[in-house]
Amino acid sequence: MKHIWITAGRFLATLILAVGVLNTSIDAAIESEESLAVYAGVVVSNNPALDSLVLVEFPFSVNRHEFSFFVPDTVDNGLFARVFAQVDLLDSTGHAIDSVATYFSMRVSSQQEADLRDYRVFNSLRMMVPPGDYSARLTVIDAVSKRTGEYFLERVHAEPPHHGKLEIGGARVAYDVRYIGEGGPQYNPRLCKNGFYVVPNPVSIFTPGDTVVYLYGEIYGLLYLPDDPTPYQLSLAILDQRDSVHQNLGSRVTAKPGQSAVIAESIDVTGFPFGSYNIRVVATDLDNGQSDTILTPFHIVSPQAILTAATTQYQVDYDDADLDIEDHVNMVKYLLVPEEFHVLTGLSDSGKMNYLAQFWAEHDINPATPLVENRRDLIERYRFSNQIFSTNRERSNGWASDRGRIYLTYGRWDERDDNEAPRIGNAYEIWHYRSIGEGKVFVFEDWSGSDDYRLVHSNVYGEVYSRDWQEKIDQGVLDVPD
């Protein structure tokens, strides 16, 4: 499993949608005089029709009321705001290697309309890139007030196209997906995909007020014979955060429109409990039996989780007097998706504490007890990581290291192999978690000889993989020249 072009100038095809309580809450929590609140995501479409390049899209949204509106020198009686947005694509060293930008306008009929706080404006930037791993920084500037906002995307994985293989790509959750055919001037062409208008949810976060989650995706590599077309099958299910089936959405068989097809689904999430979910999509070509499975995440949170004025008070259930608010935020970084962590770090100190209180209330593995046992365990892991894995004098940055991340995520290893003086290569550590699933392994190498251990191999999906290290582990030959 594989885990708005808006016209500049006088004609303004601006999409403005009210998306419920969550957006208002985020606005109240994050807004500051200095910066704009920006919400962004990344979607990768490795369509083999694009040959060797990969289409990478960066959907984003901004809060309309944060922009400065003015009366232009035109016959139009409306008020306008000007927006500049740019994405910089960064390589593994953090250097910008490509960029794409847009300049667009927003129009309202009055200042009162401009001041409404429950509206977001959506747009998207896209670029073609070679396959590889990148990061990206989206910058949005109010051209009138010069206020700026940024959103950093830590990992942009551009999977290479696979010719001759059925594959699902370009999957995203959205606030709306509708068929529009050729469309029209009222639709933003940047959000049009294969005859569908897709209003993205860049951070994949919904509230109970959002009763429908929309899904858009594409299927590549169908075996299409025009003289004898056969159907393909699509199966969907909602998985909870334990990967159990929360709701089976069934299967259907559809005629192939060609070598590719569009996935456009609306999913009723009324009454879903707060938490993280995955939409599991399985596409099967009934002609040759090829199939592909993807998981597309979304999250349903309570509005109170991001309100700075929440009435819930932060409760200490363990002796954590030596930890400050920054420590408490750092501890949960690897438990949150990047979008949730972005929301958390944008809050005031009181907002952060209230967010964390709500988070632990929702993730208490044993609500019958007065303590949050898994929180206590995480505090112990955090202290251990800083004490053992830190490289600074204060012993405070171990949690941010590769070893700290894995230790915070999985806890203490079941078995550990160390070699501080191998005959060749760097010192290394191998951590085995034999009791988790089918077994997980992580290999760390000391790159510089100064306790700079970095993750160089793992069998866990989404982590770095090294065929050489896997062969050494399988053969039990860890300190022999190649």
- Strand percentage lies at 35-45%
SS content category = alpha+beta
Q: Taking Cα atoms only, what radius of gyration do you get, to the nearest Å?
A: 24 Å
Tell me the overall shape: globular
**Major sheet size, sense and barrel closure:** 5 strands, antiparallel
Q: Tally the helices.
A: 8
Which architecture name of one domain does CATH use? Sandwich
Helix fraction by DSSP (H/I, runs of at least 4)? 10-25%
Q: What fold name goes in the CATH topology slot of one domain?
A: Immunoglobulin-like
Query: Are there runs of 5+ residues with pLDDT below 50, and where?
Result: 3-32, 306-319
Number of beta-strand segments: 23
CATH superfamily membership of one domain = Immunoglobulins
CATH top level of one domain is Mainly Beta
Query: N-to-C terminal Cα separation, in Å?
Result: 32 Å
Average pLDDT for all residues: 83
Describe the fold and architecture:
With 482 residues, the chain is of the alpha+beta class. Helices cover 16% and strands 37% of the residues. Among the domains are: 158 residues, Immunoglobulins (Immunoglobulin-like); 87 residues; 70 residues, no CATH class. Helix 6 packs antiparallel against helix 7. The chain is globular, with a radius of gyration of 24 Å.
Describe what is shown at a glance.
The chain is α+β, with helices and mostly antiparallel strands.
Describe how the helices and strands are arranged.
Layout lengths: L15 E2 L3 H10 L7 E3 L2 E3 L8 E10 L15 E12 L5 E13 L2 H4 L5 E10 L2 E11 L5 E11 L8 E13 L12 E2 L2 E5 L4 E2 L5 E9 L10 E9 L5 E11 L5 E8 L6 E11 L5 E10 L24 H7 L6 H8 L3 H14 L10 H17 L12 H9 L4 E5 L8 E6 L6 E7 L6 E6 L8 H9 L7
Parallel strand pairs: 13-19
Antiparallel strand pairs: 1-7, 2-4, 3-4, 4-7, 5-6, 5-8, 8-9, 10-12, 10-14, 11-12, 14-17, 15-16, 15-18, 18-19, 20-21, 21-22, 22-23
Helix pairs in contact: 6-7
